[in-house]
């Protein structure tokens, strides 16, 4: 066991098989880089806060062609807003500012952080500042940047945030002006009517701004013949508000719940915002799979086109490290692809000109490929897999039946309670109080937040482990599963092969280790990925790495020494 039981960089537990006081090679690399470049003050600012481990996957070479195109077409020039992943503390903000400041042409950088997303706003001189170099520099420290959020996505998130903020102010206002009554303010006090009016107006505004969010969702579901989880929440809000307005107009103090209405709406919005924050954070993981292209380049055109441009017979290019979006016929002489998304096998597959490449196959070669589409993007298996959970919310018939029965029982109990209290001479006011109390207390508030949040987190966790959940209805059906049958061993293989003699890498001298890192950096062959994770990121030698498909990787360093990484039996590898 190492001297430190927790990682010196991120604070995660150190595995028993590591003796360098780090949980992974990524954290060790970033720790050394911070000290080498005089940025160790980052740890003083971080304090005792734990950080996410720096996955070696995040330090692999990434395609930033989208960033070059975005910087070219953005208006005004020299102004960029990007998504940011990996930030967790004030030390991260300090470090990003330091990294940005050492790039020529950088004018201003602003980091916007909340629990939903991180945004990076850049202002720079486009004639001097190298955006891609800055992105790669950020990546070296474990921070990933991605395309800015879609306009509709940003609008929905900011809309809920605005509702929550405004309703929070209304809730505090309503509570402040209801508080004197709780402390014994007499009803004939000169300012008492004004206090009631301000509390009523605050509750009404909270109802219009925040309560309408839940009422609208419930109403839309009822019009569609379904029951949404927000339906009982809307019922409780309406009952409390109508009772409060009625009590205020009739001069019945016991029915005034203005402070409750405002704070209840605010708390419901906070819960829904927290739920969406977790969902959004999982859906926007920039490291999830960068191989899936957002666009494609047709062979007879220079500019990228959307994937919808792919039709049968269209010829297009496939970059190294990119997933093949549609089933196609290979036009290049040879290709090295991985079918791990399709059959679970991580071993590289060779394809010759004229052979078919399935949708979802990964180009793990060092060269681009040319292919002819055999199907359109709309019919692609990859599109169906990716869009399965992005589609509209599915109807959970069991949940609808449960809500229908639940609402019927609550309404019956509420009305029966009111009738009972009125029948036994407690008065109409107390009877209405009882009914409103039942409707409010019975709101399944936690259920309305917890169920969709738990389903999304479980699906995100499964996807991280390589299991794609096509519909969230899986969680209801999976309880009936009693036996799982696997048809072949490939279904159970790991993403990357394990190194049988990993200790050999530790015995390599600095020159050989640098050569090996140069060969495997940026190559997605399963053996290369395993070697990269084992040797860790770092400086690479100058020189272009070439690949002979099926034979290995080659490059010549500055001194003229030739290095190669060749395949062997059982997916082994040897360096020469």
What does this structure look like?
There is one protein chain. Among the domains are: 61-148, Alpha-Beta Plaits, CATH 3.30.70; 153-284 and 394-453, no CATH class; 503-575, no CATH class. Helix content is 45%, strand content 13%. It is built from 18 helices and 17 strands. The protein is elongated.
- Provide the spatial order of strands within the biggest beta sheet: 6-5-7-13-8-11
Structural class: alpha+beta
Q: Give the beta-strand count.
A: 17
Query: What is the oligomer described by this structure?
Result: single chain
**What is the molecular shape?**
elongated
The portion of residues assigned to helices is 40-55%
Number of helices: 18
The radius of gyration computed from the alpha-carbon positions, rounded to a whole number of angstroms, is: 30 Å
Overall pLDDT = 79
Poorly predicted parts: 391-395, 569-574
Major sheet summary line = 6 strands, antiparallel
Cα distance, first to last residue?
A: 34 Å
């Amino acid at each position: 066991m190492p001297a430190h039981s927790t990682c010196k960089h991120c604070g995660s537990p150190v595995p028993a098989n590591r003796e360098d006081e780090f949980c992974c090679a990524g954290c060790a690399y970033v720790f050394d880089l911070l000290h080498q470049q005089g940025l160790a003050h980052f740890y003083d600012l971080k304090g005792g806060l734990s950080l996410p481990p720096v996955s070696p996957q995040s330090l692999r070479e990434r395609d930033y062609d989208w960033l070059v195109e975005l910087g070219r077409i953005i208006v005004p020039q020299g102004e960029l807003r990007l998504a940011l992943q990996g930030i967790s503390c004030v030390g991260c903000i300090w470090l990003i500012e330091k990294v940005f400041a050492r790039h020529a042409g950088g004018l201003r950088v602003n980091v916007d952080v909340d629990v939903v997303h991180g945004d990076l706003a850049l202002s720079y001189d486009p004639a001097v500042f190298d955006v891609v170099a800055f992105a790669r520099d950020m990546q070296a420290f474990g921070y990933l940047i991605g395309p800015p959020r879609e306009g509709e996505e940003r609008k929905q998130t900011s809309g809920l945030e605005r509702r929550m903020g405004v309703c929070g102010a209304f809730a505090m206002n309503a509570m402040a002006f209801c508080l004197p009554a709780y402390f014994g303010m007499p009803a004939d006090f000169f300012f008492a009517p004004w206090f009631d009016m301000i509390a009523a107006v605050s509750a009404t505004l909270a109802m219009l701004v925040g309560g309408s969010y839940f009422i609208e969702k419930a109403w839309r579901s009822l019009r569609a013949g379904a029951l949404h989880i927000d339906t009982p929440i809307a019922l409780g809000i309406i009952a409390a508000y109508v009772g409060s307005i009625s009590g205020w107009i009739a001069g019945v103090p016991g029915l005034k719940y203005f402070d409750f209405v405002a704070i209840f709406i605010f708390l419901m919005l906070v819960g829904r915002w927290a739920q969406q924050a977790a969902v959004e954070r999982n859906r926007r993981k920039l490291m999830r799979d960068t191989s899936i292209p957002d666009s494609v380049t047709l062979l007879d055109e220079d500019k990228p086109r959307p994937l919808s441009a792919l039709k049968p017979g269209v010829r297009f290019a496939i970059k190294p490290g990119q997933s093949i979006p549609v089933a196609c016929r290979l036009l290049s002489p040879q290709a090295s692809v991985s079918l791990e998304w399709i059959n679970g096998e991580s071993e590289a597959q060779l394809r010759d000109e004229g052979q078919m490449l399935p949708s979802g196959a990964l180009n793990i070669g060092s060269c681009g490929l040319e292919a002819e589409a055999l199907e359109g993007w709309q019919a692609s298996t990859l599109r169906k897999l990716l869009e399965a959970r992005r589609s509209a919310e599915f109807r959970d018939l069991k949940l609808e039946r449960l809500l229908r029965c639940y609402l019927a029982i609550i309404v019956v109990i509420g009305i029966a309670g009111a009738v009972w209290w009125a029948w036994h001479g407690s008065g109409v006011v107390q009877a209405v109080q009882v009914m409103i109390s039942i409707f409010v207390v019975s709101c399944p508030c936690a259920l309305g937040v917890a169920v969709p949040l738990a389903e999304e987190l479980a699906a995100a966790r499964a996807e991280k482990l390589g299991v794609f959940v096509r519909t969230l209805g899986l969680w209801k059906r999976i309880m009936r599963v009693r036996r799982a049958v696997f048809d072949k061993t490939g279904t159970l293989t790991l993403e990357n092969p394990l190194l049988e003699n990993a200790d050999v890498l530790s015995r390599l001298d600095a020159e050989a280790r640098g050569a090996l890192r140069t060969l495997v950096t940026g190559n997605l062959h399963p053996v290369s990925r395993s070697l990269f994770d084992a040797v860790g990121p770092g400086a690479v030698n100058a020189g272009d790495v070439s690949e002979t498909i099926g034979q290995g990787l080659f490059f010549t360093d500055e001194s003229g020494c030739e290095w190669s990484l060749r395949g062997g039996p059982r997916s082994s590898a040897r360096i020469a």
